[in-house]
Design brief:
Blueprint (H helix, E strand, L loop, with lengths): L1 H19 L6 H17 L3 H16 L6 H16 L6 H4 L3
Helix pairs in contact: 1-2, 2-3, 3-4
């Protein structure tokens, strides 16, 4: 757990640096950030956050100039699986009694 909390802290620091920076951020850096963020959430079973981070990775990756249609299909398939992997929460557990 200690290493994951350090990884989360490092990603949080990177996010704060990206906010403060005035120059536009390179697309490759954004892709790398969101890919690592998605991996962090996946390893900790935060499925909603994982799918949203992977969606951000997907949208950042699509802006690359030299992307093939096979890469687009593979990324879209992984994004769909990330979204479908979110466990369903029974309605009874979310309602107050």
């Amino acid at each position: 757990m200690g290493l994951w909390s350090e990884a989360f802290q490092a990603l949080e620091d990177i996010k704060n640096i990206m906010k403060v920076r005035r120059a536009p951020i390179k697309n490759s850096l954004k892709c790398q950030y969101f890919e690592n963020l998605a991996l962090l959430f996946k390893k900790n079973n935060f499925w909603h956050y994982h799918s949203f981070a992977y969606y951000n990775y997907y949208t950042s990756y699509l802006t690359k100039p030299k992307i093939t249609s096979d890469e687009k299909k593979e990324l879209a398939n992984k994004l769909l699986l990330a979204i479908l992997a979110i466990p369903a929460v029974p309605l009874e557990s979310t309602q107050s009694k």
